[in-house]
Amino acid sequence: MYIAFKLNNFIMIFVDTDIFIPIYLNLADFNVLIIGGGKVGTKRAISFAEHGAKVTVISLSFSDELLKNQDKINLLNENANELSEELLSRFDIIVTATNDKVLNSKLCSKAKQLRKLCNNPTNPEESNFIVPIYYTDNKLSIAVTTFGKSSLSSKYVLELIRENILSNNAIYNLIEAMGDVKDLLKDEIKDPSKRFTYYSKIFNDEIFRNYVNEGKIEQAINRAKVIINE
């Protein structure tokens, strides 16, 4: 649900957290605008650039880290109070990270009216997307958010997951084995609905899971073949 009201001739849009859906985006070739060159703006800019986005930062001053990364990030010395709709419309994703909360709200509201994805770190409930605290490796990614209430709590929850769940090698064995099972089923069974039935059956098979827990991936796949041919 969206809740909207006018403030100084700007339509303020607040988003009910119940309607957020987690989405992983490939940011390659996305045009991202960061408004604000301070600590938060720097963190967002570096992160987006590292993940393949074309990042521009607009500010009257820039952090040393941003200045050191001008080969990866475009820096524009402009007044955030004077940004036009035409300029905002050039970008796919906009982050309002100035030290002026009212300005951040106005800019994010304008961005959303232009149908852009906007994150306002100083007032997350005005955002239509959230940047979570996350961990990722080459097999698994975990993201946690408290919808702006406490980034420290998000970090704490993420560490609990890493220490108490991801530290178990059986989790990664299962991911590897089920990836192989998926490939096997694609080769053996053409009907997607039948593939899903077998996929679930194999996943829940006690013998298969015992092999996985012991790290015996080849035996686990052989067990999957037995199930498919039953």
UniProtKB/TrEMBL annotation:
It catalyses: precorrin-2 + NAD(+) = sirohydrochlorin + NADH + 2 H(+). InterPro entries: Met8-like, NAD(P)-bd_dom_sf, Sirohaem_synthase_N. One of its GO terms (biological process) is siroheme biosynthetic process. It holds the Pfam family NAD_binding_7. It is an enzyme of class 1 (oxidoreductase). Its EC number is 1.3.1.76. The keyword Oxidoreductase applies. Coiled coil: none annotated. Pathway: Porphyrin-containing compound metabolism; siroheme biosynthesis; sirohydrochlorin from precorrin-2: step 1/1. NCBIfam families: cysG_Nterm (TIGR01470). It comes from Sulfurisphaera javensis. GO terms for molecular function: ferrochelatase activity; precorrin-2 dehydrogenase activity. This is precorrin-2 dehydrogenase. Keywords: NAD, Oxidoreductase, Porphyrin biosynthesis.
